[in-house]
Design a protein that fits this description.
By secondary structure, this protein is an all-alpha fold. It is built from 20 helices and no strands. The protein starts with 13 loop residues before the first helix and ends with a helix.
Length: about 450
Amino acid sequence: MAVTTSIHGMWSSRLAFILAATGSAVGLGNVWRFPYTTGEYGGGAFVLVYLLCVAGIGIPIMMAEVMLGRRGRQSPINTMRMLAKAEGRHPAWQLLGWMGIVAGFLILSFYSVVAGWTLAYVFRAAGGAFTGASAESIAAQFGTFIGDPERLLAWHTIFMVMCVLVVARGVASGLERSVRVLMPALFVLLFILVAYSATNGYFAQALEYMFRPDFSKLGTAGVLSAMGQAFFSLSLGMGAIMIYGSYLSSQASIGRNVVIIAGMDTLVAILAGLAIFPIVFASGLTPQLGSGMVFKVLPIAFGQMAFGQVFGTLFFVLLVFAAWTSAISLLEPVVAWLVENRGFSRVRASVLAGIAAWLLGILSLLSLNVWSGVTVFGLGFMDLFEFVAANVLLPLGGLLIAVFAGWVLSRAASTDELDTGRKAYAIWRFLVRYLAPVAVAVVLASAVGLLKALGLE
């Protein structure tokens, strides 16, 4: 394994990798998806299962994915093919790379649509649309907005163009430069919003809701969703972390960096819940608001707080950039593959991949309005893409990553890459070989049951 650098470029420092990988993990999955899935499954029990999944399954698999990426230094597909060959295993392992790219592509297609909502809300906040508005008025604004396919298409297009522009510029000039300031700024604003909620909302009620488990409201679907959220939030199983790992210096500690990334990602998710739920309860709303929660609840706070117009504008601007840093990580794996296997320039590969994801995203945005009655297995296109990606493909990809890293890759290779103490390595190896695969297999079995219930069989 003499390859020490990627042909696509390298991160300039350990901090650059942490910021980029955190940017990939931190995004709409934390601020948009985590609060509403927590609301759907009863609060504290969901949060507890989610944290357990991150610590016991997410971190070991994330370490494995970064390790495989750095070991191969190529796109996920080519990395898995090369590593399988080096270990004398069947080249079919490259299908793991394909699965990750497909999952990431599905997510990017509907992620771009939702990110387009955040773009639109930047201008709504700046224009004072939320000032003094009631909860009913803001909910009506959101309903009118997603009911307009032409407006959604415009914002979806703008966001996808933004992603293509960054990825086309490469690792250092595009990916790295975009995260150096934006991620710390998002943390600052989230802390400020939590402070506002603590003084102006039902903070104690929100704390009890998020941290007092009630397993009667969780169920199998809640456990499955918590696992899916852990994978979705940490960007596991979709090729993004693997390709980012391929740009990481051989001297950097994988374990230490992954713990920092997972900790920052989880902190953002918890902060988002602590910012949103007090406002939900203070406004007399229920937590079960679905995917529009961040667009129906936060504007209430912005409309009532001092300097809310300015603060709301800045929040949605930074939420756009959080979404942006995540989306570019989803586009990067397929662009890297096109450059390596088809000889395309980065610009051409980025444009072609962006157009394909944009076209697929149109199905999701139409499912919110004119095609709202069109369902597959009882789900609209956006819900279907999210379910298949977050609850099936990502856990399956994580399972196969754990199997490959724990059982196929030689002990010498994983020891060389991880370079941890004996005790830390033994704990990681146990988790990635036994606990993670068994836990993910149970969740996948539950997913099969849910698919049957939806009419797949």
